Amino acid sequence: MIETIEVRRIVPSEKQYAWTFGGADPLARIKPGEVIEVFTEDCFAGRIRSERDLFSKVCEYPYVNPQTGPFYVEGAEPGDTLAIHLIDVQPARDWAASVTVPLFGALTGTHYTQTLQDPLPEKTWIYRVDRASDSVRFQALDSDFRTSFPLEPFHGTIGVAPAAFEVRNVLVPESFGGNMDTPEAKAGATVYLGVNVPGALFSLGDGHYTMGEGETCGVAVEGAMNTVLTVEVVKGTFAEWPRLESDEAIMVAGSYRPLEDAFRIAHTQIVQWIAKDTGLSVMDTYQLVSQAARSRIANVCDANYTVVAKVPKRFLPEIPWMNGLHPAMRARAAAVMAARKSR
Amino acid sequence: MIETIEVRRIVPSEKQYAWTFGGADPLARIKPGEVIEVFTEDCFAGRIRSERDLFSKVCEYPYVNPQTGPFYVEGAEPGDTLAIHLIDVQPARDWAASVTVPLFGALTGTHYTQTLQDPLPEKTWIYRVDRASDSVRFQALDSDFRTSFPLEPFHGTIGVAPAAFEVRNVLVPESFGGNMDTPEAKAGATVYLGVNVPGALFSLGDGHYTMGEGETCGVAVEGAMNTVLTVEVVKGTFAEWPRLESDEAIMVAGSYRPLEDAFRIAHTQIVQWIAKDTGLSVMDTYQLVSQAARSRIANVCDANYTVVAKVPKRFLPEIPWMNGLHPAMRARAAAVMAARKSR
Amino acid sequence: MIETIEVRRIVPSEKQYAWTFGGADPLARIKPGEVIEVFTEDCFAGRIRSERDLFSKVCEYPYVNPQTGPFYVEGAEPGDTLAIHLIDVQPARDWAASVTVPLFGALTGTHYTQTLQDPLPEKTWIYRVDRASDSVRFQALDSDFRTSFPLEPFHGTIGVAPAAFEVRNVLVPESFGGNMDTPEAKAGATVYLGVNVPGALFSLGDGHYTMGEGETCGVAVEGAMNTVLTVEVVKGTFAEWPRLESDEAIMVAGSYRPLEDAFRIAHTQIVQWIAKDTGLSVMDTYQLVSQAARSRIANVCDANYTVVAKVPKRFLPEIPWMNGLHPAMRARAAAVMAARKSR
Amino acid sequence: MIETIEVRRIVPSEKQYAWTFGGADPLARIKPGEVIEVFTEDCFAGRIRSERDLFSKVCEYPYVNPQTGPFYVEGAEPGDTLAIHLIDVQPARDWAASVTVPLFGALTGTHYTQTLQDPLPEKTWIYRVDRASDSVRFQALDSDFRTSFPLEPFHGTIGVAPAAFEVRNVLVPESFGGNMDTPEAKAGATVYLGVNVPGALFSLGDGHYTMGEGETCGVAVEGAMNTVLTVEVVKGTFAEWPRLESDEAIMVAGSYRPLEDAFRIAHTQIVQWIAKDTGLSVMDTYQLVSQAARSRIANVCDANYTVVAKVPKRFLPEIPWMNGLHPAMRARAAAVMAARKSR
Lengths: 343, 343, 343, 343
Prior knowledge:
Four copies of one chain form a homotetramer.
Chain A: E1 7-10, E2 20-21, E3 28-30, E4 35-40, H1 55-58, E5 67-73, E6 81-91, E7 95-99, E8 124-130, E9 135-139, E10 146-150, E11 154-159, E12 168-169, E13 173-174, E14 177-178, E15 190-194, E16 202-210, E17 221-222, E18 225-234, E19 243-245, E20 249-256, H2 259-278, H3 282-292, E21 296-299, E22 305-312, H4 325-342
Parallel strand pairs in A: 1-4, 3-5
Antiparallel strand pairs in A: 2-12, 4-18, 5-16, 6-15, 6-18, 7-8, 8-9, 9-10, 11-14, 11-16, 13-14, 15-19, 16-17, 19-20, 20-22, 21-22
């Protein structure tokens, strides 16, 4: 029975990368229930390969953060919600890179938080993946210090075509998802995105092998990914802001500025979602979320900042969140993974 | 000689309204030096006509804030700057409207500053234009109080197609201009917008008969406009953020959140502009701007907030700002207006 | 009759300067109706006297921004509002200074908006007062450029002891007033401050000979002042946030971060004040203020940022604002000034 | 040997509560190395005891959030840093309370984020402590739903007298510590606070039995505490912003608005601390922190918002942080706890 789940592999050519959410032609059409494996290039479009490669020299805005997609999901209509379950998210290379980009990052003036000061120096760090220990190795540039971080791969960017006829650059996170940079978008998680256009047109990319909370310098440990995923459509339910679900928790991502507005969006939305779907009163839910939230800062560097409100399910009434899609997709994922291991 | 300046009148049909910056086909092609007269519908797409018309009942997002355009300007290439000189900005009707929109405005929670509170009530106010006194009349809804504001017409929205392949909703202000809601965009002013795509593709709309600083409730005294304008192209100079010029002052509009970032953008840009074009040192210019700025808050309600840094020319070295285009276009404007009056 | 108004002159010794709002012993007791003339030292405590005096070398935090006061106003009790009418605000010297302070100002990272970048260079500019033309002369440091700004003297700092047992540094603006840096606090204006402690304990200082909107570099044209003022007490009315009144307008100062919260405070408070005192409905007032406001950015550099909501009286119902104290104090001021001129 | 560690118990009378940081007389003097056990009342000053007790009816601002202290630490001088090691933090009651307060909390307009909307309803929830399961029980008000949260007690408020002659209300977090509301201030943690006045004058209170990230509704599960702690002084080192240390991590708390400024303060400070104390370059440290941070949002409701930058020590060079005080105090704590258990 396991063998019956076909996995279609999709590797875009360089010319096929998507640089926007919305406004790009579909790379492929997929059906609800289908399983695909996609390759995503790193956010540097693969141009940074050594410490000598400085971002401003080898990368060329806006050709950064290439997305694999968009995928036209059959049956997805405006007003529905697309559920993307990440089955497996694996580094596609044994190295990754991080850099500083002039006037980008949380601890510097930027193109939006403009100041008259000189930018910080540009640097590139190359990380090695150590499969044996499931870690990535950091080597300081200015000293002998080295250390390792656990490999915690996820997609910094995943989104659908925006509403209101908009086309957004792939560096932007907003209500359509996009460059949220949340480590919660990892294998085992389901990402729910409200559908704004026929087919939803979702893309993903920006593989991170690991990242600290907030993506402080603006850049994670960036690497290409091989990712297996499957999709479903929640008909007639519209997620105004991105929702996520893991086995343990439900989440909402809010992305805007200032950072407190990202927090407000995420937490208002999760309160309203819980209240609506469980029947708890809004005030009881507000209280419950206030004590239960295990929320995380995603990014404080992108065009909008992102906070992910996260509430463990064990503190909540037991209901089938989003029509119970997550456990169903988890089961399919288990079958896929079992089949892959048995190969 | 006056008669030689032809004024082409362009009135879009309802189907021709533009709902985005970028992503729309040109309504017309115009040449540098050409003078056009355009009609712009009000931000409600003309649907609010009495106090009984509530925004949420008669308007349908995203079909709000229709723009007249886009105009393809011949010779405008990415890296250039488009100069739009507003010759005449006249109310096209003898009435205008303002409303409160649920979860929109500076003194309420919004879709971005989300809270769990109930929205404010929805109301509509109809203003009468009094040509004799050049004013608009306010009538309170809940009492007999009435008062008048001076007629100070301007365009809340004017912009070009964005960079980085983006298409933005007409309610958004950013580096491409857009829904800045600054009263400085009035007759006699030149608006400079960096060109991102061939032809620049500028549009305008959102006529305001008058407005307070900050557009506090989110909505000005909104009305249709007949506007006469002319354009030029500054070759090889790119205005990163919108610049404006009047006879008395140069200005830069910064639009982002939080509001201090809008302030920082506007003032950093004007310091760098002045320093670069006059040869003053950056620190001397920083000091000069700190004492000379007559900046105004434009909006604290849109998707991005806007501040306009404004420095009177009389405090600055005498140079021909932006190649001296403004005085040249002023002269053309004077000829046009003289011809119109003589008709 | 004019001669009967006695003006008491108060010049603090250096040891008597106040460095806080709250927590300082009264410099003097004054009675409602009394007229005093005070000397205020500049914000550098007089230590910057030439271009060679750099802030970080000659000034010693927290001994900056010395205030003259506090004054114990007889009869002022918590729950009342103190009205301070500025009769005359005159430069006490024929020169003034401005500087850049490391990590202070709107266009640099600061102690609160921390970044890893190097600070901007430290500079000092000395301005000359030209009484003949009522202006101050700017001389560039790095070139021959010079220009003049009109002399527009005001007090950057004026406040009372805070509520909730707090003592605040004189660089902070908040609901107790303080370092608001609004040019509206000039001769002819009445400043209303809610009284938190017996006697109100108001102080003032931080004379500015002129300043741009926002005090961009963090420092105005700073100079010592001779200021004539008189006070009254509004019994039983508490101004939650500082109010100001001129012959033409009523105002509220909001001071907090981010800047939109300063805007929200100022405008919410002025809407509520107008609605309460005129009987207009809150929604009508919200609409009215949205079109009538002529608000100004005060500072975007202090510990809290300040916006002053300003509504011209001519757009409002005619009522005696704050018990009609302002016109009464204006009359007294006129008498004082007439007497002084006749000397 | 264990018995030689004396634990002095200090229980303030109601009249002895401190309502400010700074400006209060010492409750007691303690010596470095001394161990004390203190009782802290809940943030409601004990006035909320049932669901019928609404905050605005029974509490009286500013008599909220009573602190136990201040303690004068012998030998602590301005320029030093006080190290407070929390040995044991235990609920002093078998119940706790949470409430909604009008115009306070993250998902409502507030006294600083002012809007014209109606406040949310006022509610009180009483939680039961279940010692057997180390949890607190939530009971919905509007339905039968109940759930439990793990007991995770900590002090929401801990701080010293501020710099610059300031006295701050106990609801404020800033560089002196104060109402940071971070769950990291729990048993086993050392809190480092820069000393601004002789004796440091530290206080603590605001016991939380548990709390979600961000303290969304503005109020945690609030309860009285019995807390055992010991102190040391780091001579000649000044922590500009509060530092924390656990066995696993070092941390810095940043508290300001907007929330990104709290993030910037915390992360800039931890980068500079690590770089300075380990000898790593600033840019290498910036990169390291960007991938290593496990930072948490503390509060998005107080007068300033708080983010705690947190870096696991295992990712960093092995050095004795803050003179190795934390492990030394841990050892003393172990001895104290062993002695208490043996009683």
